[in-house]
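A.,

Following up on our hallway conversation. Structure tokens first:
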């Protein structure tokens, strides 16, 4: 299996999309997923006056209660407070009617009840992906895909083939190239010029924080040796000062603002593709990590059409250089763009960049750049004022924070808001949180901040061994992705994929967090002190995700009265060896009792 791919999204500006990073094996089967249609409901919902409890809960069902659907004789892992395990589960009118032993469920079966014999298979609450990019990721599926390629030569060959296949394309747009494939993570414009010289080329890196362009793109953007680095960005240059063709952070915008605009139909179809993939992986709830008004409109349209097959919380992007009134408009959109299965009461702040390109904000300098510790994208006081205003308006705060300085600065502002305003209206969360100063680990629980990890990144791939550890040193590298330490601190820990930046499959990420190794076990355990349990990872993808959103009364566990958002696995994960977790398959995904995926 190819090395895991990863990283972080670039802020959305002018239709700038992060690169698509699927494992190559996922792309091979994507055609089937894109064209699979969600199953139509196969039962009629009955209206119920109330929901009573079976054996193991409070009382027995009344004689009038009949289930629409019964899943029986399996392992129903409820993820409730006691981590109860049952044999069967009954569903009616989109909610859970009963959970318990098969013998107690049988009296809920009527002539129209659909019965699924689990035969020992496992039932879980639907997974929640707490950080991904559904619309832009779906759009990228039709672009030049460089994900999972193993050499610079493969990357160039793929670009050539794409350009030849699309002779009428005004731009060649795509991404997914891995930083370690090129010296100093800095591919050169001339390599692209030899393949495509008549049209501009714009290719985002695997981390979404760098772009590789050809000379034609530099010319169109009027980027020369005299062009100064923009605020919060860097133009990589040859020794003579001529731009090399690699752009970091906000410097990407100098070219991306010239890209052809996407259409409303592009966004809608991209979201449809992502929803089909999410259902395949058992995902019934998600957090859109960074959106503008165009993306919000795509969610609203699919929701109105009854096609939104997941519950979505949309985080609206907050521009550090935004125009006056930006926050007022965000608050207004939060009310206007909220529907049946989605809401937009969340705001996204990018506090820093990424370690590999030296744009993450650190407490001490990078070892290869004395005096350079990276920069904060938001200055602390400006960030505090913006976050405070949104908190008072009831908007959830969502932060991109990679370096230990960025994590500390974010925790400092949250603590300050608590002290000044008497509390945080909604649980704030920090995503990616790669490098910690251990002194900040207990502060998450103390402040009530949620640790939002992308667990698939927690092993020693080439990003870690070639680009991260050498510029941090062993002492700091010990505190990369300390997932277990956050669990032990009693912080609320949730998980996300950052798709399309990396694989969306929660089972892959769960395995990596449990083993701290790649899926094929080809490298030694990395930082074994931070391995976590299967139960902790399941919680991070289910009930903890619901707690983050304040939706724990509605979903996140399989309890009577909650929505019937659930999945069926072909094996009981508790009986599978840790190194085999990624081989487990999702057989069935239900949203409010309706089949949205069936294998």
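Then the amino acids I'd put at each of the 599 positions:
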């Amino acid at each position: 299996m190819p090395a895991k791919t990863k990283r972080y999204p670039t802020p959305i500006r002018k239709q700038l999309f992060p690169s698509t990073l699927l494992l190559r094996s996922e792309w091979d089967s994507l055609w089937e997923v894109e064209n699979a249609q969600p199953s139509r409901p196969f039962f009629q919902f009955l209206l119920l006056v109330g929901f009573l409890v079976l054996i193991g809960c409070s009382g027995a069902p009344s004689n009038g209660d009949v289930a629409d659907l019964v899943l029986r004789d399996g392992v129903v892992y409820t993820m409730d407070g006691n981590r109860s395990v049952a044999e069967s589960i009954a569903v009616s009118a989109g909610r859970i009617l009963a959970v318990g032993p098969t013998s107690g469920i049988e009296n809920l079966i009527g002539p129209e009840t659909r019965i699924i014999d689990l035969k020992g298979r496992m039932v879980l609450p639907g997974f929640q992906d707490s950080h991904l990019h559904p619309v832009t990721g779906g759009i990228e599926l039709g672009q030049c895909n460089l994900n999972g390629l193993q050499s610079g030569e493969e990357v160039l060959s793929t670009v050539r083939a794409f350009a030849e296949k699309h002779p009428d394309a005004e731009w060649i747009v795509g991404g997914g190239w891995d930083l370690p494939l090129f010296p100093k993570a800095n591919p050169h414009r001339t390599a692209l010029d030899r393949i495509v010289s008549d049209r501009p080329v714009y290719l985002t890196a695997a981390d979404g924080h760098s772009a590789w362009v050809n000379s034609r793109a530099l010319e169109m953007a009027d980027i020369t040796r005299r062009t100064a680095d923009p605020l919060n960005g860097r133009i990589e240059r040859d020794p003579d000062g001529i731009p090399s063709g690699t752009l970091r952070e906000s410097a990407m915008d100098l070219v991306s603002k010239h890209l052809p605009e996407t259409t409303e139909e592009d966004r809608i179809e991209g979201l449809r593709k992502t929803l089909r993939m999410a259902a395949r992986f058992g995902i019934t709830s998600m957090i859109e990590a960074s959106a503008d008004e165009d993306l919000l409109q795509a969610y609203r349209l699919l929701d109105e059409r009854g096609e939104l097959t997941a519950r979505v919380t949309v985080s609206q992007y907050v521009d550090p250089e935004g125009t006056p009134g930006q926050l007022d408009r965000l608050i207004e959109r939060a009310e206007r763009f909220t529907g049946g299965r989605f809401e937009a009461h969340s705001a996204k702040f990018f506090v820093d960049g990424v370690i590999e390109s030296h744009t993450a904000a650190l407490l001490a300098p990078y070892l290869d750049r004395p005096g350079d510790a990276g920069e904060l994208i938001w200055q602390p006081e400006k960030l505090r004022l913006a976050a405070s205003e949104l908190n008072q308006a009831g908007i959830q705060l969502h932060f991109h924070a990679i370096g230990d300085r960025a994590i500390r600065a974010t925790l400092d502002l949250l603590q300050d808001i608590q002290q000044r305003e008497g509390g945080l209206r909604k649980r704030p969360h920090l995503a990616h949180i790669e490098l910690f100063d251990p002194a900040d680990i207990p502060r998450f629980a103390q402040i009530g901040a949620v640790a939002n990890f992308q667990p698939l990144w927690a092993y020693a791939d080439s990003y870690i061994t070639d680009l991260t550890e050498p510029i941090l040193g062993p002492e700091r590298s010990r505190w990369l992705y300390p997932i277990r330490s956050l669990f032990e601190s009693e912080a609320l820990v949730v998980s996300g994929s950052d798709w399309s930046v990396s694989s969306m499959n929660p089972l892959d990420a769960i395995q990596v967090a449990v083993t701290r190794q790649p899926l094929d076990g080809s490298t030694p355990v990395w930082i074994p002190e931070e391995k976590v349990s299967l139960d902790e990872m399941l919680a991070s993808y289910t009930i903890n995700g619901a707690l983050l959103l304040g939706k724990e009364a509605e979903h996140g566990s399989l309890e009577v009265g909650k929505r019937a958002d659930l999945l069926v696995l072909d094996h009981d994960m508790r009986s599978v060896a840790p190194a085999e977790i990624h081989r487990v398959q999702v057989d069935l995904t239900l949203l409010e009792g309706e089949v949205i995926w069936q294998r």
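The mean pLDDT is 89. Curious whether your intuition agrees with the design.

B.
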